[in-house]
Write a structure and sequence with these properties.
single chain; 4-stranded antiparallel sheet
């Protein structure tokens, strides 16, 4: 009941973003279990971006906050589905965004991470200082 009360206390615009992020995360998580990640990324983000309208514009920060918040309620969601959904929602809102991948040496092996980079900033994915970015073919 607290979750519902918290959701209803958000402004309507953020409620819409949160609901969109939640359903996209569920779908992306399922698709990543069935299809190669490259195909999921391509399918979700190859659409042309839409220009932001002045009266209904959401900030990139609001979009990323919605994805981060919604990810807490979808079981098994890690950085890759969050990055795919975040990039797709940012592109749809007219913001430039790209997914970056990196690795870090962690005993006993390594750790991989995905994050969203937009307008010179890491928008989703937290601190990425310990990761070495992988070169991606475009």
């Amino acid at each position: 009941m607290n979750r519902l009360r918290r959701f209803l206390n958000y402004p309507f615009r953020f409620q819409r973003l949160l609901a969109e992020a939640f359903f996209r995360l569920v779908a992306a998580s399922l698709l990543l279990r069935l299809l190669p990640s490259s195909r999921v990324c391509r399918t979700w983000t190859d659409r042309k971006s839409v220009r932001r309208s002045q009266h209904n514009a959401c900030s990139a920060e609001e979009i990323c906050r919605a994805v981060t918040t919604a990810s807490r309620y979808v079981r098994g969601v890690n950085c890759l589905p969050q990055s795919i959904v975040g990039r797709a929602m940012l592109l749809r809102a007219g913001y430039p965004a790209e997914i970056r991948l990196g690795v870090a040496k962690m005993p006993p092996g390594f750790e991989a991470h995905a994050w969203v980079y937009s307008e010179g900033l890491v928008m989703l994915g937290g601190s990425v200082m310990q990761y070495t970015e992988l070169p991606i073919r475009r």
